[in-house]
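Lab meeting prep.
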Amino acid sequence: MKITSVKSYSVADRSENGRSYFIVRVDTDAGHYGLGEVGIKNWGRAISEAVDHLSELLLGADPWETERLWQEMFRSGFFPADKVYCSAISAIDIALWDIKGKSVDLPVYKLLGGPVRKKVICYPHTQGRTIEELVSNCKRVVDNGWKFVRWGQPETGGLFESEGVSILEPTKSMRIAVEQMAAVRNAVGPDIQICLDVHTRLDTAHVVQMCKDLEEFKPFFIEDPIRSENTGSYKNLRRQVNLPLAVGEQWASKWSFREVIEEDLIDYARIDLCIVGGITEAIKITHWAETHYIDIVPHNPLGPVSAAACVSLCMASSNVGVQEMPTQPGTFSTNLFPNQIQWEDGFSWCPDVPGLGVDINMDEVEKSYIDPRSWPPRLRREDGAITNW
């Protein structure tokens, strides 16, 4: 079995307000094909070129040689792959694992060692523009069976008309976040787990004070409390914060995780399989984290392919905290992805079918193409200075 083509597809589900996906499909001469998903859609055009470039190393190769191909893609340019290339490598690698499963009629999670659990606990996204709306959204998902709620660090103002960006003033945002968590905890009770995603929007001093104010509400974790470029900064944060920290969604490759794992600076590893280097690299980080009693919380803000890859890893891993699952699988974009993984009462699992358990409708893909480049919403402070989105 040999790889015959590697192609990327940037598509939008026009029936659902433009929900977009960046998919890589790898085909073989045996008729098996695999799907992967790219983690950084906003750099789509560059990643699309990277996929085409990497395909030169893959055509004619055996898709079962995932470790060798990963090393070839990551190291063949002499300079190690950056986030753009790692996002391309990730999608390709996930697709190769999908092919491997299909070629031997086994689900991917069985190739990863087999299931250590029957299903994976998940959390949804429950954002709200006001505290009342947030509480309502949290109560709704709890009523639907979810055991977790999660939202992001709140914005604090409207739009700069001249720039079209929102305002987030740290001290105001900190106060609102505390008010939000107090209201949600009161509404959902003590048994529902709460996750707050700071989304790298605050500085260390702001995070430290906010976390102290949040301790009484016992959140499950605080996610990405500071910017991700300097992993050593977590030494300072760890000394001052008494809440569990979930970190890592912006990191590409195992080396970015080295310091925080080896020095026990985090509680949950937010591995993004679609950025970090795919399943091949995520397995290594997961087992490495296990030796430090760090659970994984795979980052999954994307689509059905990403969800299936994450849940496959979680089903075969002993150290799992919770799986991000923004929307219930099987309830969205079924025109593009008619077969998706399973969900019930806050848990997801991969069906016992070959590969990842996700299929794609290529006829819909051809009709749904979008330009693979975009910018996310942007945030400013009240003085006009940029803060992370």
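Slide two material, second protein:
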Amino acid sequence: MVVVGGGPCGLAASLRLANNGLRVALIEKGSYHQPRVGEHLPASAMGVLQELGISAICSDATSHLHCAGVVSWWGNEHTPHELDYFYHPFGHGLNLTRPQFDRQFADHVRRQGTLILEHAKIQQLSWTGAAWRIDIVTEEVRCCMETQFVLDASGKSASIARTQASHIIAWDAQIALIRNYHSCAGPINDRTTHIVIEPCEIGWWYFAPLADGQGVCMFITDPDLIDLRKHSIENSWRVVLGKTRAVAPILQSFATMSKPVVCSARSQRLDHFFGDRWLAIGDAAMAFDPLSSQGITKGLRHGWMAGQVVIRYLSGETAAIAHFSQDLEAIFSEYIATRAGYYATEQRWADSLFWRRRHTSTGKR
């Protein structure tokens, strides 16, 4: 069994497959020491960690911060909305330190018997009539594998699905400017363990405190609404940040920072999620707006469920993959409706192009 993509989704799928006695190879194009995007697990995700049996790797408070909840200025500049995780059965969420979480998770998956190839590139993928043949090259070796099934957990690139004539449908062109902050210099206050969300005229801001006095800040916008040229991006960040009421004061407590990194934050999905002995899962199948705070949680859930679905399929339940695909269709439809409803609640900048696009959007681009 081959899983392509070594993020939380691919690791969760590999874990379930290995726990059920299958020989699994996981192909990861990068390594578990490179920067990775995403950190927040809401309180509802704590049960997912327990089901996967990986709660212990998140228990070190020096590595992963217990998150108290979310403070959001969405739709109201005077009184924030507060979601307090204290009232959830688990009592807290988690702000993960990446890529340390992925590295710890990968080590756990290895101990269950999965072969993980890092810095691995698929040179050729072909169906022989009896099995998939996959030619792989890493920094150390070249090898060939044969497998009865391929799981595509390669992220937004959907690298396997696209070779099988599946196409990406984008709902928007949204981007995220992401910046890491270090060395918390100011006084600790009651917001230091809360996620903070603040809208503005051309997008919205997100701040997450991390363990060891660090933090990550993200600005969501459309690429045509901000100057992204290399010599201008620093000033663009500073100008838009200066108009915030909640996020800017928080960042004054941080002494050092990285340069802004730009990455895609668009909503997207594949036109079909599966084919003959392959299945796309996680962000390869569908990617959500960061506003949902479901990126890592979705990946863990999709991977864990898909592992069981593949086991059923290989055991002769041939309709299992199609039924799972129908579940994915329903998940995405619900997400699109929820996203539209949430953006509709922010009306302060109704004439702004960013908000107008989200208030009138009816589907793909």
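Talking points for slide two:
The chain has a mean pLDDT of 93.
Residues 117 and 220 are 33 Å apart (CA to CA).
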